[in-house]
Write the structure tokens for this entry.
Amino acid sequence: MSGVQLTAGAGTLRIGGDLTVSRLGYGAMRLTGAGVWGEPRDPAEARRVLRRAIELGVNFIDTADAYGPEVNESLIAEALYPYPEGLVIATKGGSVRPRAYEWAADGRPEHLRSACEGSLRRLRLERIDLYQLHRIDPRVPLEDSIGALVRLQSAGKIRHIGVSNFSADALARARRVARIVSVQNPLNIAARGGEDVLDVCAREGLAYIPYAPVAQGSADALAQGSVGRELEALARARRVSVVQLAIAWLLARSPAMLPIPGTSSLAHLEENAAAADLSLSADELARLS
């Protein structure tokens, strides 16, 4: 299958007006150890997954300095540098890891400056195409955190600013300080909270990057409740996997959607990419609504 651009069927999305990416990206978080901590169990296999994602047509990879921490960004550079033309690497700062399975916010401007500089070094970049505030730090005024990213943007360290784990109200506040081009929030067919933010993104021309797009990759997690039963029945009828159908649903939900299913398995990577060619009829979408 080498060279087959499986993600082409998803179409494209423009981020910030000047970055065109396939609407089916790749979330690299799973390419770490247990608890999103430390090195992956098989670093060579992790690098193969990243290279195969590019072969399949992925040109948007999402990561964060907190994944590992720092391991994920370094792994991407080891596998893919020098980067192919058109590849957009999005990373995040503002979340710190005291230990495995623990996450804490740090939105202080001085931390964000240091975090961005560290990401630039690890990714071997002079400028990060999309730098996202990972989460809001309740101890720091949101405007101060976003203002730090604006200054990094003015200094040429980042091209575009995105946010993650934001409510519609927080997004509105951030947009008064900076030009925000994307929001990364949890959303999948089984957990649809936050669709109000998606609606803002669709209306205002922002990219919506749903994380946990297939409920941590678990068919059991997706197949809950009445919608889950419809999803399973439709997957059987279409002879596709529940996970593939869940990705197709996201792509059909809004043209602003940029799913980033992640996996450490080559087989699952190819299965996810093949979902780009699944189209859902109006009747099928209604069954899954």
Q: What stands out?
A: The longest strand covers residues 158-164. The domain at 10-210 is CATH 3.20.20.100 (TIM Barrel). Residues 109-123 form the longest helix (15 residues). The radius of gyration is 18 Å.
